[in-house]
Amino acid sequence: MIKHIQEAVEFLQSRGFGTPDIGIILGTGLGKIIDHVAVEAEMSYNHIPNFPTATVEFHKGKLIYGELAGKKVVLMQGRFHLYEGYSLLDVTFPVRVMKGLGITRLFVSNASGAINLNFKKGEIMLIDDHINLQGGSPLAFKGVEKLGERFVDLNQPYDAIMNAKIEEIAAKHSINLHKGVYASVVGPQLETRAEYRYLKIIGADAVGMSTVPEIIVANHLQIPVIALSVLTDECDPDNLKPVDITDIITQAGKAEPAMITLFTELIQSL
What we know:
Blueprint: H1 2-14, E1 22-26, E2 38-44, E3 62-68, E4 71-77, H2 88-101, E5 105-114, E6 124-132, H3 160-172, E7 177-184, H4 193-201, E8 206-208, H5 212-220, E9 225-234, H6 245-269
Parallel strand pairs: 1-4, 1-5, 5-9, 6-7, 7-8
Antiparallel strand pairs: 2-3, 3-4, 5-8, 6-9
Helix pairs in contact: 1-2, 2-5, 3-6
């Protein structure tokens, strides 16, 4: 794996990618932050050695390097999921490449369903903790100790200092920001009524199909990380309605201006 990471890093550096301060993984419907980036280099995933290729139709599949809010950033415009048939090593390979390029912080965004019935679609949740229900770990492979500590402590997987700053920014702009626990499942099917009840019982406030593998690897690499989740549907098992994927993307788009404000002002504060 180390050789594969180095090959990808060296290729990107040869194509104009410099040393970014911050890595950003953009989730469903959250691509417009690119409009605020002074782009210096970009590369389609399918041209990067050893990189997976995004197969989800609303994930574009580009790595972008440039400047945002006065800091050098590298952005993943489209991410990878277990439900696409990739392994956890594939899903998290880009985080290791971004670390190789030089990132010292990682920002992650996603779309999720609200389990907590006090949370409404179109609102944003700051992820404070998570539950891994994906059936595996991106650290469970031979030779992982060559890349970092095997037994990673996840008592506080999300950076408390950056989380506090995000809450301050939200309060300043009157953004309704919730804080809660994100459960990550495999997908791609959505949950049954019984599964929503189970998720609530075990302490989840929201559920999605991504993010946790990248968070685990960021902690493995000792990269401070934060994650914001746009709540795109309400998962009340007693009043469950068929989910419209178009509406999910619409809800993510509605929350996008607030997400951009939170991310850009956090970057400015660092």
